[in-house]
Amino acid sequence: MRSVSSAERSRLLGALGIEGPEGLARALEGVGYLASPRVALGAFLALSLERPLLLEGAPGVGKTELAYALAAVLGSELVRLQCYEGIDVHQAVYDWDWGRQILHLRTLEALARGAGRAVEEVEAELFSDRFLVERAVLRALRGREAAHPPVLLVDEVDRADEAFEAYLLEVLSTWTVTIPEVGPQVAAVVPVVVLTSNRTRELHEALTRRCLYLWVDPPGPAREAEIVRRRVPEASERLARQLAHIVAELRRVGLFKPPGISETIDWAEALVRLGIDEVDEAVFVDTMGIVVKGRDDAERVASLGVGAILESRGPGDARNR
Ligand SMILES: Nc1ncnc2c1ncn2[C@@H]1O[C@H](COP(=O)(O)OP(=O)(O)OP(=O)(O)O)[C@@H](O)[C@H]1O
Ligand SMILES: [Mg+2]
User: Fold this and answer.
1) For the chain, give me the number of helices (H) and strands (E)?
2) Distance from the CA of 279 to the center of ligand 1, in angstroms?
3) Of 133, 256, 257, 292, which is most buried, counting CB atoms within 10 Å of its CB?
4) For the segment 156-194, what is each residue's pLDDT rounded down to a tens digit?
5) Is the CB of 55 under 6 A from ligand 1?
6) Whose CA is nearest to atom 4 of ligand 1?
7) Which-ligand-closest: CA of 200?
C-alpha cells in the first residue's frame, strides 16, 4: 500500500501547471467546470495525495461532472462504475466470457480429439486474459500511462450494499484486486478515484476514512449564472443572473426536490428557444415545470407567491462563491 504521494503524480501535476488549488481551478475552468475554492482545494489534495475523493451533496450540484472534468484536465480515460443495489464483483471488477469460453472449448475438443492434450492444459487456457471481461474497477487498475492515470468514477456508492462497499474499501486501500484463476492484479498507476453519494444511507466509517471528504454545496448565484452562460452562450447575462437568483430562492424555501444546476441550464435553454429574455410572473408560471418538479412543490411555490419569489434577492448571494 502506498501512503505518500508518488513523485510521478507531483511531476504530472507540475507539468500541467497545477501547482496548487488555484492552478487546478483554472484547469477545471478551462474544461468548463467552475469549481468553488473549497472544491478546488479538496480535489487538488485528493489528486496530489493519491487519495480517493468522496463527494456528497444534494442532487445536481456537480458531483459527477467533477469526475468528468478531472479526466478532461488530465487527458485521461474516465471509467464509470454506476452503483446499484446488488452490484457485485462480476459487474464491477471482472467477469469471464462464458459464451466464448464454451465455443473455444468446443473447437479445442474437435481439434484435440486424438491429439492427447491434458484437460488441465485446456482449462488453463480458458481462464486467461483472452476470456477475461474487464469491468470498470479492473480497467481503472490496468492503466499503464502515469501521465494519464485513469479516473475511476464510483457513482452513487450509497446505492450499493455494504458488502460491496467493504470490497471497494479493500481495493482502494491496496490498489489490487485478486482474480482467483489468475492471481492478484496490482495497479501500476494509481488511478484517480472519485466516489459520489447522495446520502440515501450512511457510508461505512472505514470507507470515509480512506477518502478525502468533500460536501459540495450548490453554487452561489454569481457562479451559477456563469455556469449557465458557459453552457447556454445564447442566454444574456441578465437572464442568467435572474435565473440563478430565482433558483437560489427556490432552493431556500424547502422544496422536496430543490432544483439542481442542470435544471437552471435547462430553463435557460428553454427560455432562449422561446425568445424570452426576462422572467415575469406569467413566464414563471408557464415554464415552472422545468425547475419545480412535482405537484407538492408547485403548490408550495404557489402558496409562497410567484411574485415574492421573483422579487427576492435571497440572503445567499455571497455563499460558496
Ligand atoms: N461547477 C460546475 N461547473 C459547470 N457545470 C456544472 C457545475 N456543476 C454542475 N454543472 C452542470 O450541472 C449538471 C449537473 O451536475 P451533476 O450531474 O454532476 O450533478 P450531481 O451532483 O452528480 O447530481 P446527482 O446527485 O443527481 O447525480 C452537469 O451536467 C453540469 O452541466
Ligand atoms: Mg451524479
Assistant:
1) 16, 9
2) 23
3) 292
4) 999 999 999 999 999 999 999 999 988 999 999 999 999
5) no
6) 33
7) 1
Q: In angstroms, rounded to a whole number, what is the distance separating the alpha carbons of residues 207 and 196?
A: 12
Residue 201: strand, helix, or coil:
coil
Q: Is the CB of 220 under 6 A from ligand 1?
A: no
d(CA 197, CA 57): 7
Residue nearest to atom 16 of ligand 1 (CA): 62
Residues 309/253, Cβ–Cβ less than 8 Å: yes
Q: How far is the CA of 268 from the centre of ligand 2 (A)?
A: 21
* C-alpha of residue 58 to centroid of ligand 2, in Å: 9
With the most atoms of ligand 1 within 8 angstroms of its CB, the residue from 64, 80, 82, 247 to mutate is: 64
Q: Would you call 273 helix, strand, or coil by DSSP?
A: helix
Atom of ligand 1 nearest to the CA of 66: 18
Verify whether ligand 1 is closer than 6 Å to residue 292 (CB atom). Answer: no
- Over residues 57-114, the pLDDT tens digits come to 999 999 999 999 999 999 999 999 999 999 999 999 999 998 888 888 888 877 776 5
Element (H, E) at 205: helix 205-210
Q: Whole-angstrom Cα distance, residue 13 to residue 28?
A: 13
Protein residue closest via CA to atom 3 of ligand 1: 33
Residues 6+ apart with CB under 8 A from 52: 46, 172, 193, 194, 195, 210, 211, 212
- Using only C-alpha atoms, what is the Rg of the chain? 24
Task: For residue 163, give the nearest of 112, 236, 89, 220 by alpha carbon.
Answer: 89
* pTM for this predicted structure: 0.90
Q: Quick one: the chain helix, strand, coil %, rounded to 5?
A: 50, 10, 35
The Cα–Cα gap between 282 and 136 comes to 48
Q: Are 261 and 227 in contact (CB under 8 A)?
A: yes
Phi and psi angles of residue 196, each rounded to the nearest 5 degrees, phi first: -120, 150
CA angle 182, 183, 189 (to 5 degrees): 110
**241 is written with which cell numbers?**
443572473
